[in-house]
Write a structure and sequence with these properties.
alpha+beta
């Protein structure tokens, strides 16, 4: 008899891809030292190449860093990037040039935490298929600090309003874990620490049912910006049962028909330098090698 398959394990929900985190920055040189030279990521060679914005590729996702007063995400971004020792060497190599900023980095048991020149935290993990899916470079999650008592209602908001799967986890604090794509999540971890005011940073997702969430958000007065035919935004997450405000972070919501949906991104191999150059190894393979997935 053929073995049964868990078909629900492959369900994604309405959100099919998490693309970028956006925070404004005041200095592209310092951002280049941190994101490109330090973390080892890649500046997008095609779009936003002037001095008013820079896009930084992380596998199939990005950081967007337009010019402006520094914004700090209330939480942290998780990235998968192979080569812990090489990462530590790169971060150490830029430390002196960033010593008058908020830059710092430290080793933890399962990750390296790096802090950008303006205070944004990035947790860098080695590839782990069981934990993050079959990626060697990417953004598997973004985590936000939210007030105590908010996570359960956040778990109701995303399925009911956005059509996105969500679950409530209890372990190291209470966490609402919302599926934003294949092996990608928005996480909302409760904390009793005082949270700073929202400063305008955002995250961006692609969804398949584009009009349904729009209609439900608009009925509740939650649409904050009408961008174009393919994109709108909202900021406030509310309890769908009664409308209590829970948390604010801007969501840039795009349709799967958006012209830039799943645009191929260039990812360089940071181990390649003029002294270590080997033809054919310039680009980073963002996903793991093939296996016989049908037999798993």
């Amino acid at each position: 008899m053929q073995q049964p398959f868990d078909r629900a394990a492959e369900d994604i929900g309405n959100s099919i891809h998490f693309e970028h985190v956006k925070v404004t920055i005041p200095d592209q040189r310092l951002a280049t030292l941190f994101y490109i030279a330090g973390l080892g990521l890649t500046r997008d060679p095609y779009l936003m190449v002037s001095d008013s914005n820079m896009w930084v590729n992380v596998g199939r996702s990005q950081f967007h860093l337009p010019d402006g007063a520094p914004q700090v995400l209330r939480g942290h971004t998780g990235i998968v990037i192979a080569g812990r020792e090489a990462l530590l060497d790169r971060l150490a190599s830029v430390a002196k040039k960033l010593e008058v900023t908020s830059f710092a980095f430290s080793e933890r048991n399962d990750h390296v935490e790096a802090i950008c020149p303006w205070g944004n935290r990035v947790r860098c993990y080695e590839p782990d298929a069981a934990r993050f899916g079959r990626i060697t470079l990417g953004i598997p999650y973004v985590e936000f600090d939210v007030p105590v008592g908010a996570a359960k209602a956040i778990c109701a908001f995303y399925p009911e309003i956005m059509g996105m799967q969500a679950e409530l986890l209890n372990g190291d604090g209470t966490v609402a874990r919302v599926k934003a794509g294949k092996d990608q999540y928005l996480q909302f971890r409760e904390t009793d620490r005082r949270l700073p005011e929202f400063d305008g940073h955002h995250v961006q997702i692609y969804i398949t049912d584009f009009s349904g969430p729009y209609r439900r958000l608009r009925e509740r007065g939650l649409i904050s910006q009408e961008d174009n035919q393919y994109q709108y935004r909202f900021r406030d997450i509310i309890d769908p049962d009664g409308g209590r405000h829970l948390f604010t972070v801007e969501h840039e919501v795009r349709s799967a028909t958006h012209p830039m949906f799943m645009r191929p991104l260039v990812n360089r191999n940071p181990a390649e330098t003029n002294r270590t150059y080997a033809p054919g190894h310039e680009q980073w393979a963002w996903a793991m090698e093939p296996d016989e997935y049908d037999r798993r």
